[in-house]
Amino acid sequence: MKRHKYHYGDHPSQWGELFLPDSAPRRGVVVVIHGGYWRSQYGAELGEPIAKDLAAHGMVAWNLEYRRAGNGGGWPHTFEDVLAGIDKLGDIAGEHALELDRVVALGHSAGGHLAVWAAGRNRLAQLGTPDADRQLFRRGDDDGAVQITGVVSQSGLLDLAAAERLNLSNGAVINLLGGTPERYPKRHKYADPMSAVPLKVPIYAVHGTDDDTVPSSQSEAYSGAAQLTGAAVQFLKVPGDHFDLIDPKAVAYRKCRELVRGLLA
Fold it and tell me: What's the pLDDT tens digit per position in 86-141?
């Protein structure tokens, strides 16, 4: 296995690490987006074991770091970083013969939110960017945008309005977005994956049966809303808790790896 680190900006948290398998097959790329309720104390070290495991099973993995609330992130920088970090794959594709016709996002918890949100970048452009004219949010294929072609959300926070009402992780949503939905209604709408339903890419919303960190209603609500529109979204429950989904030895994670492999096929 080989690994290469690249920066996509000047901030210390604007980087990703590419994990390359030693042998074929290596179709497409998996973007690993870590969780931690968007807070700065949780970083890409959470995604590293997954990236290593994916590479060990013949898949190219891009373990993405980004600015979080508390270290220069929050609105809009966390969101800009995720898009810029994914687009960085276009800059390094030639160097490593990456195939970008299949780019699957594998996101855990807050990373699940960011993965599904990023997959909806084209739909969100129709909403108009709140607060500022953010060119990155409106970037299209012709401008070098790398499109997500499928998502596996692992206990993702996919219904931000409900997460805010439930005060999950002591106000994590308000912390991310810099204020309440009453103060910043457009910002909250834009950041919520529910606003981009339906997406044209397949999405698996996976949730642990014993998860007491992110309620399964987050995955169920998103899946239900998407399925009503005919979108290709499936809700799956797997045995285990919140962190079994990112434990390479756990059944819950192995199911996620199987889903990722299928999306790359």
Answer: 999 999 999 999 999 999 999 999 999 999 999 998 877 666 666 655 665 666 65
pLDDT of residue 37: 98
Residues of the chain with pLDDT > 90, as a percent, come to 86
Q: Please spell the DSSP secondary structure of 103-121, one letter per residue.
A: EEEEEETHHHHHHHHHHTH
Angle, to 10 degrees, between the axis of helix 48-56 and the axis of helix 251-264? 60
Encode pLDDT of 31-79 as tens digits: 999 999 999 999 999 999 999 999 999 999 999 999 999 999 999 999 9
Topology (CATH level 3) of domain 2-264: Rossmann fold (3.40.50)
∠ Cα 80 113 105 (to 5°) = 80
Domain positions in the chain are 2-264
Q: Rounded to an integer, what distance in angstroms lies between the CA atom of residue 144 and that of residue 139?
A: 7
User: CA-to-CA distance for 141 and 137, rounded, in angstroms?
Assistant: 12
Residue 161 and residue 191 in contact, taking contact as beta carbons nearer than 8 Å: no
pTM (two decimals): 0.95
Dist CA 247 CA 264 (whole Å): 21
**CA distance linking residue 15 with residue 258, whole number of Å:** 27
